[in-house]
């Protein structure tokens, strides 16, 4: 005899739960808040996801896989991939204050779990490293296509950019004025000129 059919969309549950985790942080998100956000009862939620941690990890994977795939698609189809990298950073300028206050979920996750949960830190770090590798790959392609030259290696520039990505996502929580963020971003992106 088959179990009861699912009456919810797993992807939607992951989207709603990770947005709540992003807004509040993992530890500050209660089960009651999760159940309200995803509109499920406790039994349904924990039959699908064995724990709050599993729900968080699966939601993080889904969110970041979608985001990185979309960014990689833009890089692949662009004649000017360095412009796509610049646009990623510049998208922060147009973010609303609510998004600015949330920062980057990957950086937030690493900071919240550092020294406490190596598995979750490893999951978040995976996506940061993947973004860095995309930067490196497309900077190298731009060099090979003679669209860009630098005395620095593509790897060094990619590491600089990922460090700046982490930094600007902290700074956007402090400096929410678009003009301040724009100045910071434009200054750091001169490395791609």
UniProtKB/TrEMBL annotation:
Signal peptide: none
Keyword line: DNA-binding, Transcription, Transcription regulation
InterPro entries with a match to the protein in the record: Homeodomain-like_sf, HTH_TetR, Tet_transcr_reg_TetR-rel_C_sf, TetR_C
UniProt DNA-binding region: 30-49
Positions of the HTH tetR-type domain: 7-67
A single GO molecular function term of this UniProt record: DNA binding
Pfam family, any one: TetR_C_13
UniProt keyword Transcription, yes or no: yes
UniProt xrefs under PANTHER family: HTH-TYPE TRANSCRIPTIONAL REGULATOR YJDC, TRANSCRIPTIONAL REGULATORY PROTEIN
Protein name: HTH tetR-type domain-containing protein
Source organism of this protein record: Flammeovirga pacifica
């Amino acid at each position: 005899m088959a179990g009861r059919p699912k009456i919810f969309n797993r992807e939607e549950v992951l989207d709603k739960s990770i947005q709540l985790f992003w807004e509040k942080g993992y530890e500050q998100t209660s089960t009651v808040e999760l159940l309200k956000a995803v509109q499920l009862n406790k039994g349904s939620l924990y039959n699908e996801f064995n724990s709050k941690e599993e729900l968080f990890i699966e939601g993080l994977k889904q969110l970041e896989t979608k985001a990185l795939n979309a960014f990689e698609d833009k890089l692949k189809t662009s004649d000017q991939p360095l412009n796509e990298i610049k646009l990623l950073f510049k998208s922060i300028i147009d973010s609303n204050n609510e998004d600015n206050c949330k920062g980057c979920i990957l950086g937030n996750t690493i900071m919240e779990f550092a020294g406490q949960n190596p598995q979750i830190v490893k999951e978040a770090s995976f996506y940061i490293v993947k973004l860095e590798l995309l930067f490196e790959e497309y900077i190298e392609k731009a060099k090979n296509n003679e669209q860009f030259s630098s005395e620095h290696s593509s790897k060094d520039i990619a590491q600089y950019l990922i460090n700046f990505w982490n930094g600007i996502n902290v700074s956007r929580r402090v400096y929410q004025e678009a003009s301040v963020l724009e100045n910071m971003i434009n200054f750091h992106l001169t490395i791609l000129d």
